[in-house]
Design a protein that fits this description.
Arc Repressor Mutant, subunit A
Length: 334
Amino acid sequence: MAGTTTGGLLPDRHPTGDFFVCDLFGASPKDDLATMEHPIFSLSTRPDRRVLSYAHNGVEVQVVPSVKGRATIHDKDILIYCISQLVAAMNAGRSVSRTVTLKAHDLLVATNRDTGGDSYTRLREGFERLAGTRITTNLTTGGVEATRGFGLIESWEILRRSKGGRMISVTVTLSEWLFRAVCARSVLTLSRDYFRLRKPLERRVYELARKHCGRQAEWTISIPVLHHKAGSAAPVRVFRAAIRKMIAADHLPDYSLAERAGDILVVTRRAKPRPIEAPILREETLEAAKILKPGADVYGLQARWLTWWDETGRARLAHPDRAFLAWVKTQKDG
């Protein structure tokens, strides 16, 4: 299973990282529906300077790279992190804007990247590709359809310490198109193990599985249509062989793959592993919840929280009491 074996996955470099443990309920990884559905990002590991023209079901997308190449699906980690922070802020009732200030170290930890010096260099290169990649589309976000051109991010700025040159913080201004999708909550939660997938195609197939299969038991798609939607530049026969290797490896988070007659891929939602017992809260924690939500039925809140915890993957919690109180703060009613 993806969450428990190393197999073809990257190691979990930060198993106790604060981003997804202490603030699990506010800042779980989120991805926007539009770029999950359509092949905006390059799957190449080398600079991809090809212009992508894509049309499907009335949606037209043209992606023009800069001289540094088209933004890659690994560059997308930056956007996922920004989207996650914005959604967490909205859930907490805070105002948000297109401009997000973040710590580079936190971004690297959250997206399961190494925090050595080279990682900061690669992060900067990712910002450059995101800002340089230009998109023209009629794709609807937030209920609004407009044909327009834009970059994935409008601008970015890195602040460094004068001694040593290490990044202190990064400020990113998202495109209005992407920000509108976030405000409309046109997003889906990803498995944290998404960031452990090594191959670009694995990440892309996981995105499509999460978008189309979701919580259904099964989703089917023909290999030629999947090839088109994935945005692969490989011939269909090479793409088909790569999918068969993914089927054999069987380490996508949340979903398993199988081949069916007629050149069909079947995506099946995995049964979730069941831990021995649900998180147990201390009485002091329930008393603290009463203070946060005066007059609320804290045992009812506890039951709702446990239901939410179960439905969102039964994550292992290092600090369940802290996680519960963080969740309580996001609830707008008792």
